[in-house]
Automatic annotation (TrEMBL), chain A:
InterPro entries: Emfourin (IPR049457). This is Metalloprotease.
UniProtKB/TrEMBL annotation, chain B:
Extracellular zinc metalloprotease. This is Neutral metalloproteinase. PANTHER family: NEUTRAL METALLOPROTEINASE, PTHR43579. Its EC number is 3.4.24.-. Residues 351-373 are annotated as: Disordered. Its cofactor is Zn(2+). Keywords: Hydrolase, Metal-binding, Metalloprotease, Protease, Secreted, Zinc. Its main location: secreted.
Length: 87, 373
């Protein structure tokens, strides 16, 4: 499964975009499960917060949008893994 | 350019998304909001005089305290807010430098709003100031969540601890001030104004605290936040938007300083951190033209605009420009300050909006002036 994460917004407004393919990875099952959970979590619950990061998670042709600080644990772990940056 | 002039809603405990809905309703009238603003101004003038004559402790009764009520929490690298309380108001310094920096910077921010604008905390009614440090792991961000400030440690590779620059903490706290005053909608131009107001007062808080004049100030946002080795001085420059950084990893500072460089994008809530460079630069030009301490006249005009009740939550640059001109005229007459306000907006390519006939407090428009920027 190819998983993409794009981040925008934030105090510094530095955009980040990264993708990975789960094929051949030792954590493939975990990542696929995280992606499934992240994509079905529904839209971010709560108001837009000034300077909060916003994220787009795309896998299997589906895209979920979410925003800090209203992320599920699965969304946060997936974003951290794919972007390779603190989240 | 929208002609929408929903009345400003003055309400201190309803969250912004609810206020947004309310602002469309018919009854929250401008006249009521304006009257309350006048009462507030009168109260502030009285309070200032009392403070001068009998000292801060002499003000009693319902008036908010002249002292902050700060609480700093440690999120311990987790998601849950606010986390564990580690320092309350009046407590001795903690071991943790991030905790102490947040505590001191909240104090400096409270002090600037009080001494420069007679504002008592975020809501002008003594709202306690709450911040959490060490949010998540290596987190490259800080934000205001509607109730409190939240600071990450940075990853140490690109960003250092977000509690380091005083203007960053002032910026976040000012998002609270905006929420409790003009409540500018965080999208597109109104969102860029919301961001700009936070940069303006973030910078003014630093200037006030350091005792720097407009000429001495660096006019940077986030100086000291970039890790060693990153090619940049800061995240934004109000004096020269677009020049704060140029780095292989960060990219190039995308901020325009004039409408000619306005960026249309759906990212970042419609480019709120990008196009904020335009009103940021207008403020810098005004402060530079007036000279002296920027928080005095230039800052007062912006503060009056933010809190005066004439701005719609959906205000565009042209509406905000008109409101600053009206605020300058109301406070200083049609002299140098008023002319400098109009000149600075003109230099960044923004033409003040023509006020609707019933919008109290806005200047009468010169005949023939175009309605759109
Ligand atoms: Zn901001």
């Amino acid at each position: 499964m190819r998983i993409e994460v794009a981040r925008s917004g934030g105090f510094a407004a530095i955009e980040r975009h990264a993708a990975l393919d789960t094929a051949g990875r030792p954590d493939a099952d975990r990542l696929v499960a995280l992606a499934e959970a992240a994509l079905t979590a529904g839209p971010a619950r709560g108001p837009v917060v000034p300077d909060g990061f916003t994220y787009e998670i795309t896998a299997d042709g589906r895209t979920a949008r979410c925003a800090d600080p209203h992320l599920t644990a699965e969304q946060r772990e997936l974003i951290r893994t794919v972007l390779g940056e603190g989240a | 350019m929208t002609a929408d002039r929903a009345p400003a809603v003055f309400c201190t405990i309803v969250p912004p998304h609810v206020l947004d809905k309310m602002s469309g309703s018919a009854d929250a009238g401008v006249s009521g909001a304006a009257r309350r603003t006048l009462e507030q101004d009168a109260l502030q003038r009285t309070r200032r005089r009392l403070t001068t004559v009998i000292g801060a402790t002499g003000v009693t009764g319902a008036a908010a305290s002249d002292r902050p009520v700060r609480t700093i929490h440690d999120a311990k690298h987790q998601d849950a807010l606010p986390g564990r309380k580690v320092r309350g108001e009046g407590d001795k310094a903690a071991e943790d430098a991030s905790v102490n920096r947040a505590y001191d910077a909240l104090g400096a921010t409270f002090e600037t709003y009080l001494k420069a604008y007679a504002r008592h905390s975020i809501d002008d009614a003594g709202l306690p100031l709450v911040a959490s440090v060490h949010y998540l792991q290596d987190y490259n961000n800080a934000f205001w969540n509607g109730q409190q400030m939240v600071f990450g440690d940075g990853d140490g590779r690109i960003f250092l601890d977000f509690t380091l620059p005083l203007d960053v903490i002032g910026h976040e706290l000012t998002h609270g001030v905006t929420q409790y005053s003009a409540n500018l909608d965080y999208f597109g131009q109104s969102g860029a104004l919301n961001e700009s107001v936070s940069d303006v007062f973030g910078s003014l808080i630093k200037q006030f605290t350091l005792g720097q004049s407009a000429e001495q100030a660096d006019w940077l946002i986030g100086a000291g936040l970039l890790a060693p080795g990153v090619n940049g001085h800061a995240l934004r420059s109000m004096k020269a938007p677009g020049t704060a950084y140029d780095d292989p990893d960060l990219g190039t500072d995308p901020q325009p300083g004039t409408m000619a460089g306005y960026v249309s994008t759906s990212r970042d809530n419609g480019g709120v951190h990008i196009n904020s460079g335009i009103p940021n630069h207008a403020f810098y030009l005004l402060a530079a033209e007036l000279g002296g301490n920027a928080w005095e006249q230039a800052g007062q005009i912006w503060y009056d605009t933010l809190t005066g009740g004439s701005l719609s939550p959906h205000a565009q640059f042209a509406d905000f420009a008109a409101a600053t001109a009206a605020a300058a005229k109301a406070r200083y007459g049609e002299g140098d300050q008023y002319r400098a306000v109009l000149a600075s907006w003109s230099q960044v390519g923004v033409t003040p909006a023509v006020p609707s006939p019933d919008s109290a407090g806005l200047p009468r428009q010169q005949p023939g002036q175009p309605q759109e920027a």
